[in-house]
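Subject: Interface between my chains keeps coming out wrong

I've been trying for a while to get a sensible model of this assembly. When I model each chain on its own everything looks fine, but I need the whole thing in one frame so I can look at the contacts. Pasting all components below, labels as-is. Any help appreciated, I'm running out of ideas.
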Amino acid sequence: MQYLWRTPGSRIAPEEASPIGPPPLEIRGLTVAYHRRPVLWNIDYAAPPGGLIAVVGPNGAGKSTLIKACLGLVPRVSGTVEVFGRPIAKQRRLIGYVPQRESVDWDFPVSALDVVAMGRYGKIGWFRPVTRAHKEAALHALERVGMADFARRQIGQLSGGQQQRVFLARALAQEAQLYFMDEPFAGVDAATERAVLQVLRDLDAAGRTVICVHHDLQTVSDYFDHALLLNTRVVAQGPVSRVMTPDLLSRTYGGRPMPAPAAAEAS
Amino acid sequence: MIDPMFEEALRVLTFQSGFNSAVVVAGTAALGLAGGTVGTFLLLRRRALVSDALSHATLPGIAVAFLVGAALGLPERSLPLLLAGAVVSGVVGLLTVQALSRFTRLTEDSAIGAVLSVFFGLGVVLLSVIQNLELGGQAGLKTFILGQTAAMAQGEAIAIGLLAAGAALAVALLFKELRVLAFDPGFAAVQGWPVGALDLVLMGLATLVTVIGLQTVGLILVVALLIIPPAAARFWTDRLPALTVAAAVIGALSGWLGATLSALLPKLPAGAVIVLVAGGFFLLSFLFAPARGLLAAALRQGRLRLTFAERRALTDLLDGQPVEGSVALWLRLRGFTRGNSVLTPAGQTAARAAARDRRLWERFLADYPALLPAHANWGVDPIDSVLPGDMVRLLEERSASS
Amino acid sequence: MMPDVQEFLQIDAPALLAAVLACAACALVGNFLVLRRQGMMGDAVSHAILPGIVGGFLVAGTRETLPMMLGALAAAALAGLLIEAVRRLGRLESGAAMGVVFTVMFAAGVVMIEQASAGGIDLDADCVLYGQLETILWLAPKGWESLGDPAVWAALPREVLTLAAVFALCVALVGLFYKELKITTFDPALASTLGIPAGLFHYGVVLLVAATAIAAFEAVGSILVIAMLIAPPAAARLLTDRLAAQILLSVALGVLAALAGYGAAAFGPMLLGASHSLNAAGMIAVASGLILAVAVLFGPRHGLLGRRRAVGRLRAAPGFVAPEAQKP
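Reply #2:
Try treating it as a single job with all components included. I did that and got this:
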């Protein structure tokens, strides 16, 4: 796989990705509260090794907060998060992150290639400049998402879907074992949706674990292997065939009747 | 030594120390009141620092007005003319900030910084022109930069007090409109409110407060009158009417105490002292206000973490899982465990209560998620203290049957 | 009546050097303030250092530079921490947090100056605001030929040497941490997940701004510092879409503003027949403002007039159908 090109100093130990080792992500007793109101309550979850995992739940269920709490970006009231058996601060090299598109200033004076190269900064280390090899790796990542022609373009001049693909390429350039993605399919065109899906499948084939916040219930079963149904607490978890049932979904979405398939497609 | 001083202080504070100083103190208090009320809406509209650009931008106008006055042959520096110049160039500065942040890719902070420094630089250049021309009365110009209450004539103090009271009154009259503007300008526009005009009114009031504050606190610090009182008041309340009143009170108190201190003690420039008094109110509010103060928030957060850690540890022990670290020590201190993490009778009771709370909250969360918003402390406090008794009984039945 | 060479070298050259170095250093670090939407941090820091300067002066009892600079740096660090504390713990927007902290600290400095002046000490809030560019003298050179003598260069005024050192420090730090500055500015969350401490870099930028402002304030005053931190990077931001180009361009524009502003202040009135010069720091600030205005109006892609031209070209392009023409 070309995009999984690896620097000699890359510190991914093979045994850490093996299926018999500790799970890629293990959350125990995680509670997050804004002021005194819990946003996530007593979350216990262990992600299966490898595979594509969808985090599904209604608005305000704490899906993005779950990812941010796992990454240490929001303070926790209680609980622990471990990645491959160790605290996240010690495993940063193994983690990739695709934030929501609105989280950055797209007017920023950097090109698409610059942004993708940022994914490699953790590997490059302090004081060392971005070398040609790193730029080539970044370009490969852009090729994987069909954006190589736009490498020199300032990011603000890209369409929403193209920006999403740049973010995805950046995650690829990180060469992580475990990926967190916050709504990678939100508000993108059909071409980008196919590109994102292809990247997810490639990652899956390469044995990586991908945890995606996903809001389109219609596609969960097609795109993902596992699902985590979340509404402030874990409602259900497991293979999509087992948890994407009307009963569990209606419990996740607050007991209200599920949106009819036709209505959901129109929205 | 202390007593005469104290009596003097009491006299100034209660406006009995000569008419002139009473007028100055009252005028300054009115200025603080106006700053607090107008500033509340600037703060909520996230425009606090725009007033900094405004106040710095008044300097070239003051200098030009002075030159115009000299050219017209006015004998003394004429305050109304200078303040008119201040208004004109302040408004030009304000409009430049808005144009830069609306029509270019520059963000508002850059626009403010650029306008503030460039206009002030222009003012400094014009001041050096005036200095070279050796005109009379120019010494007074520098008091606009750092302010000076001692220079305030009685008539000026009365005018400042009246204008400030007018600004506060305008806010009171437009309260409903300004509230919708500050909360959701998009919604206000859709509802047919003249958002642009309201914004202009708000910035006009800010200009008024700034210009009448120039003489007292100076153009560098006048922004403090608009920012600090509402920022301090913010820690005490989440309700807008209370916030406005609290900001007005803090602003008025700062002006009153600051002007008094400055009149009593030597070498205390009024503008700086007023700002320091306001800063003192801010610090007290920041640390000790019960609603959003630092101490209260830290205590709440700490208790929350401790409660969760304690309950989790207790239920873990009940399930036969070991508990380690500082939580184990805490449980022993509370008398819930002894020896090698063995639950005491009190610990057993607490652990069962914690397990029951968790089970019932889980049930509540599963069965009635739509009811959550009504209970701000759900999942945190014991369930019996948040939910009504019949609801708890219902949950118990359901969790027993499932 | 232009000044003779010796007068130029002794009076104007050191002032020009100081102004150019101050402007270049400020413009360089200012890029990161502008991109982080913290333009007002320069304003806040350069006001908040006043009590530190006075404190250092009172403690040391002399007008030595070092204690004042140390005091100022301490005050700047305190201001940075306080602003962040008020913003995060107090949940106030950053503009209000800055407004509270810097006005209180500046007011404390003003009171300290007044109290100190009771003891017959002369320190003036004015010199902090406007600087004393005109008082920097370089007595060593006697003419162009004396510039070949190393001893002449060794006798450069202290202000110029300090500014040169700070400029070198800025270049070195920005060069060393270029990619970290870039990522913590663009996407602090990603930086954190990669193990690059975004919070530390925030304080690093604030401290670098403070060091630059402190070195510069004595020569050019805090107002010019604020102008130089923002106007050249803001102008460069409108002229290019590449970070490295923006940084280089902003330094060039800062130097241009220094030369043009100083020239206008020192020689402009003479050309008009007046005998006095104008305040140079203020004039440089005005020059930077004019440069920004030009960039706003005529910038090729983001300038207001440039944008209109681009729309005009689009309309003139073959095959373009105006929206109003499409209506039946």
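Reply #3:
Confirming on my end. The first helix of chain B runs from residue 2 to 13.
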